[in-house]
């Protein structure tokens, strides 16, 4: 079950760097709020797959449920309730406001993961 997968590690690292750059330098109304959320579920998926050898669907659905949970916690102002409203890192990592569009971004991100995994698996079988 536990493993180390270099491919997923490198994907996760690249996505993490991209997310940090977005958080630090992008101040717009699309890339940062929506594309960042789209990418973050892919990042989390790759991070989990780096260390856990489980089915694509199980990991993808687990990441999606986790993302939905974080978004619901944002609805209930979890950052404020934890006393972290002045903490920029907490507000960036956890988020600071519920949005249905974020749920859509998470869903599209996980759909992309599932599609890419299927295409990758199909191509690896055809190449054999």
Secondary structure: elements and pairs:
Layout: H1 6-25, H2 31-51, H3 56-75, H4 78-81, H5 88-94, H6 100-126
Helix pairs in contact: 1-2, 2-3, 2-6, 3-6
Features:
mainly alpha; 128 residues; single chain; 0% strand; globular; 77% helix; 6 helices
How does this structure look, described?
The chain is mainly α and 128 residues long. It has one domain (6-126). 77% of the residues lie in helices and 0% in strands. It is built from six helices and no strands. It has helices at 6-25, 31-51, 56-75, 78-81, 88-94, 100-126. The model has no long low-confidence stretch (mean pLDDT 93).
Number of strands: 0
The total of helices stands at 6
- Unreliable stretches (pLDDT < 50, length at least 5) are none
| Overall pLDDT level | 93
Strand content: under 5%
Question: Please, what is the oligomeric state?
Answer: single chain
Q: Helicity, in percent?
A: over 70%
* Most strands sheet: none
Shape: globular
What is the distance, rounded to the nearest whole angstrom, between the alpha carbons of the first and last residues?
25 Å
- Compressed to H and E, one letter per element, the order equals HHHHHH
Please give the radius of gyration in angstroms. 16 Å
Structural class: mainly alpha
